[in-house]
Structure formats: C-alpha cells, structure tokens
Give the backbone structure.
Amino acid sequence: MAPATGAPDSSTDAVERIPPVRVAIIDVGSNSVRLLIASAKRSGQVRELDRDRVYLRLGDDAYRLGRIGDRKLDGLADVAERFARRARAARVELMETVVTAPGRQANNADELVDLLAGATQAPVIVVSAEDEGRLAWEGAVSFLPESRGTVGVVDLGGGSCEVAIGKPATGPTWVRSRDGGALRVTRTFLRSERRSAREAAAARRVIRELLDGIHPPHPDAALAVGGTARAVAKVVGPRFGVRKLDGLADEIVRRGAVASTAGLDITPGRIETLLGGTLVLSEVARRLDSKLEVGRGGLREGAALALVRAQSAAA
C-alpha cells in the first residue's frame, strides 16, 4: 500500500463523481488492535460506518522480550479473524491490515505478518515510521472543513510518535518519527505504581533527549491524534498547549491518574499510560511552538484513502 500523498487529481469534478468505496482497515498497534469500516472517496472524504478496539498491549512483549510472545499472538489471531468476519459481513470491497510499531520493533515481525494474513485472508502491510506519519496526516487533514495553511499532525501511539507537516494542497513535506509512544515511555521510564515528581522529571529529560533532532517548521495549525490525545482532551479540553499539558502531568503526579480522570470516559489501559503520553505531547508542543487541537481521523482514515486511491490507480 502506498501512502496517500498530496491532493486528489486535478480533474476534481471527475474524481468527485466516482462513487465511494466501502473499506475496512485493521490497525495493529503497540497498545491496541482497532477496526475501521468506512465509506471512502478518492477525493479525500472518509465516512465512518463502524469501529471497534481491543487492547492487547503487544508492545509489552516487544519491549520486554524483543518479540511478540505466543500467548499474545494467539489473542491477536482471534481478534484479527473476528474483525475480518465483521468487515466481510458489512460487505466491504477492500480490506487491509496495517501494522505499525510492533512490526518495526519486534524481531518476529515476519511471524506476526504471516499470522495476520492467515487470520484475515487479506493483505498485511508493515508501514515504515515515515509512512505512518504521512498516513496519519492525510487522515486527520481529511476532516478539516477548509484549508488552514500549513498543518502539523502529531500522531502519538503506544510505541512511537510521528510528527508530519504540510499543506492540504500538496501533502506532508516534513515527517519525523521517534520510538517515544505512550506505552513505551510508561514501561521504560515510569515503572513505579505511584509516580513521583522526581520520576516524572527524569522521564521528561529522557523524552527531550529522544526528541533531539526534531526541529519542525512552525505550522499554522497543529492537530494531535491518537488515543492519548483524545484522553487528554477529555480532561483539559480540545485545545491544549505546553502550559495545560504540564499542568495535567503535575496533577497526575500529585493526585494519581485515576483521581485526575475520575468521572471521565477513559479506559483503565489509557489511564495507565496517560502521564507518559502527556509528557511526550508537551515536549512535541514545545518544539512546534504551537497549541495542539485534538483532531478527528488519523492513521486508519489515511490508510483507507490510500487503499482507495491505489485501487483507482490500478484500474
């Protein structure tokens, strides 16, 4: 699958007349496995029809063992097969499984791909870190109501963080990635049950070192996508900069993540990694010198668009 890049063809009217395609994307990440069933148009519109999510935490094995263990592979096969059946019951025309950080960070990635191909009976793609950033940018920008100049998209997942910047008319032209996802940061730097201010400060220093070399151009607007960004928005509102993010991190250290998110619709798995993810978002926002606005769409929507465009180009 080639990532969706740039705007639709210049023959916009002809492209608009092409009927939408029903597609399914199974997204295998470090934290969760997600399903998106959507109606997608080559010109850039994605309409969600169904979605699902199962937390498998494949990243725990990748970081601890260097490979995905048999028990989690068995669980993954069950989830992937169930998602594929659900997609076919929805009469999708195209289906693809996209593997992100687990496919890049586990030394048994080939086994992972073979298992997924057998479970879904559909193509499986391990996307590069750069392509992940581009697809997330495309998916997020597809939901913008109008051109907003240069747009930055921060895609914070469980195993990695991508930053992509570009204009809707031309696509992303600056993309960087680091292995600093919310789950990976939590497991590596925030191991204690009750996180202390000293531990959080040490984690922040390591995150800053991890992000060394990321000097993005300043965007006119910046979107944050992924589960951590949505969880942060539920606590502090849909737009947040360094001040709000640092304040949330301090509150989590002081009160604990459970108390800081009491009464909000945030899963326990997300609460566990919220401090680590918040620290990463804060450092990225500081480098962008911009507030982040929680975005709609992301990797799965971008992958759906890329799949539809690839089919159209091959026709």
